[in-house]
Structures are given as C-alpha cells and as structure tokens.
Amino acid sequence: MKYLYMFILAALLSFILTPLAKKIAYRLKAIDVPKDDRRLHKKPIPRLGGLAIFLSFLIVSICYVGRQEDLDGILIGATIIVIMGIIDDKKELKPKVKLIFQILASLILIAFGIKVNYITIPLLPGTGSFYVGWLGIPITVLWVVGITNAVNLIDGLDGLACGVCSIAALSLFGVSMISGRVTAGILSLILSGACLGFLYYNFNPASIFMGDTGSQFLGFTLAAISIQGAIKSAAAVAVAVPILALGLPIYDTLFAMIRRKINNRPIMEADKGHLHHRLLALGYSQRQVAIILYIVSGIFGVTSILAMSVSTKKSYLILMIVCTLVLAFATELGLLKKTKR
Where along this sequence does the record place binding of Mg(2+) (predicted)? Predict the structure, then answer.
C-alpha cells in the first residue's frame, strides 16, 4: 500500500505544481511559438512543464527514500540537467553545449557509484557477464547521454514523451523489484506518478509542454534508474531488460540516426520521419497516435518484465524476436525512407 501512496502523492504534487510552472514559463517568456510545419500546435504554448515533474520527483523521493548516495547522485545530476533545460527553453542552446551538460551530469552519477560494472555477452560460458572496470565510465556516459536524447527526440506530440516515460518507469519498477533493488523501484514509481500528474495538462490539446526541462530530465533519470535497477548487476539479462523497458525511444532514435545517414543529413538535424509523424501521416489524430504508442510502450514494458523472469537464453531470444518485429514494422511504416526536410 505504501507504494501506492508514493505514486499518488507524486501525481498530486505534479498536478498542483504544473500551473505554477506555467506562470514561471510566462514570466521567463519560455514559450514555444510555432515557426515551421514540424510544429503540430498552431498557437504559442508555455514550456517548463518539466519543472513540475522534477520538483514532484525531488520532494517525494527525499520524503520516502531519504539521504542515500545513489539518490544524491541522481538528484544532483538531474538538477544540472534541469538547469540546462530551463536555459534551453528560454533561449535554445547549441547541441554541443547541451552535450557538455549531459556529460557533466553523467560524470556526477559515476562519482556517486551509479555506473555500468558488467557487460553481458550471452555466448560466454557461465553467467555471460564480465567486469568492465574503467571501461564502465565511457559506457555509462554513452548510455545516459543516449537515453537522455532519445526521450528528447520523441517529445514531438502532445503527451507522448510524458506518457511513454510514465509507462517505462512503471516497467522499471517491476524489473527493479524482481531484481531486489528496492530503491531503484521506488524512484521509478515516483517518477511514473510525477509524469501522470503532469499528463493531465499535457495530453492533447496540451496547455503546457514539458520542454527540454522535462524531456531531458526524464531521459536522464530513467537512464540512471535503469543502471541501478538492472544494468549495474552481473545478471546476464542486464542489457536486454532496459533496452526493452525503454524500447520506444531507443528504437525511434536508432531509426532516426539510420534514416538521416541514408539521407546524407546531420545526425542531429530534425526531420518528419519519426514514428509519430508516420502515424499522423496515415490519418490518425494526435490523441490516437499517443494512445497507440502508449500501448506499444506498454507491450515493451511487459516484455522487459517477462525477460527478467525467465532464463538468460530465453531473455535474449525475446530481445531478438522483438528486434526483428520492430525492424519489420519500421520498414513497413517507412521509418527508414527518405524524408522531406
């Protein structure tokens, strides 16, 4: 029952704090004004909604978890990300500057002991895992920066990133509890609740956006929690599980990178080839697309929990099957085709 209280409290706090975040956004003039056809909204909408999600997560985490080294690392790193997000929502930062903030926040995690310690290769004898030592530092940075940007990339539709992250966090809650990592599980649940409270204002038609403040905070925090809840262990399923739990943003980002390479465009250049763009092009409404992708994210989440509960060989068989199905789906939907600028 205490877990339910955490979830509800985080959701209520986020719900209450969002109007305050909206006022701050107007005062700072952190407003998203549609300037091109990539924007799906037609009128200016305040950003900084992620501030409400962050504050809700911060308050409830401190109340229920207390002072712990891993939580301190996550909160300090997340604060750096949020500061960067606020600046970016006020005036857009260059990608290189964002990357510096993301790397700095990643190094904070490592300094507080949140680091990838093992890499899994299923064909190896025994557990299939081996200790990576100092190589865990660049691997951790790559994972955190990658997931942070992956969530940021799917934040192109009302309520999409917020809802997907809430579902992914619930999945990590299940995975963490199965693996006996209670703190990571609690943080996942709190994060999921904080997202849900904000979603009331962010679902189509959105009255406020989470902005980079929210999308980058959510990506960073999910990456950090996934390390604590799954990747950090020597379990052979360590890599497969978070890849499945965070499947939607990971695969959409990978396909975006491949698509831009095919089109001879910069990796960081925006386009209209993302999954939600393709579904909109098929005639679905914004609400329908969001719900469809919530369902897809939920399937990924259930699959990740299933992978955590079976043998090593079966877990990687599940991952291979999912990857094959996703590739077939992406090809059919045209996620790898040339797109308009």
Answer: 152, 212
